Amino acid sequence: MIAAELLAASGRFPIATGLSEQELSTIEHEFGFTFAPDHRAFLAEGMPSGRGWPDWRSPDRVSLRERLAWPVEGVIFDVVENNFWYEGWGFRPSEPAAAMAAAKGYLVTAPRMIPVYSHRYLPAAIGDHPVLSVYQTDVVHYGNDLADWLNREFSLGKPAEHQARATVTFWRDLL
Questions:
Q1: Residues spanned by the domain of 167
Q2: Which DSSP helix (H) or strand (E) runs through 77?
């Protein structure tokens, strides 16, 4: 069963009409990313609504922008407040403001994370990707794909027995 069908069959969340190809393209253009193929298919099949789900049709674009910015802002918070520094960035500047500026510069090259539900994200990248929980620099594998994530997160079925490897740079290294 594909992810959207699995969620709809559970009856746990209202499912609105799926996003049209035009709506998906408009969202991608407006926010400057491309949905991963499975995320796009999931939203085209039916758009879950309610607490935790991003409302891609909402006129409240500020809320969507905040959810899109959340992963990067969380990393920046940890750079400034918790002395986090990713080894791939090289030398850490000693001044907090300089470290923050450098981290922001590096983070623009990290794949963009797109909200699925609450602080569960899929990368905006072509290919198959696991669903990741992203809370500051605490990144956790939550499912091999959308269907596996739904099985795990909401106990909708049997989760996969193996764990897929995270595929996108930077975020996989935080696992």
A1: 3-174
A2: helix 61-81
- Of 80, 110, 77, whose CA–CA distance to 96 is shortest? 80
Tokens of 76: 């920046």
Structural domain total, the chain? 1
Q: Are 41 and 2 in contact (CB under 8 A)?
A: yes
pLDDT-derived band at 69 (thresholds 50, 70, 90) equals very high
DSSP state of 89: G
Identify which of 58, 18, 70 has the alpha carbon closest to the alpha carbon of residue 42.
18
Burial 30-50 (b: 16+ CB within 10 A, else e): ebebbbbebbbbbbbbbbbbe
Provide the greatest CA pair distance for the chain: 53
Residue 77 to residues 14, 82, 101, 111, Cα–Cα distance (Å): 34, 7, 12, 18
pTM metric for this prediction: 0.92
pLDDT at 119 over 80: yes
Cβ-based neighbour number of residue 103 at 10 Å: 21
Q: What is the mean pLDDT of residues 116-122?
A: 96
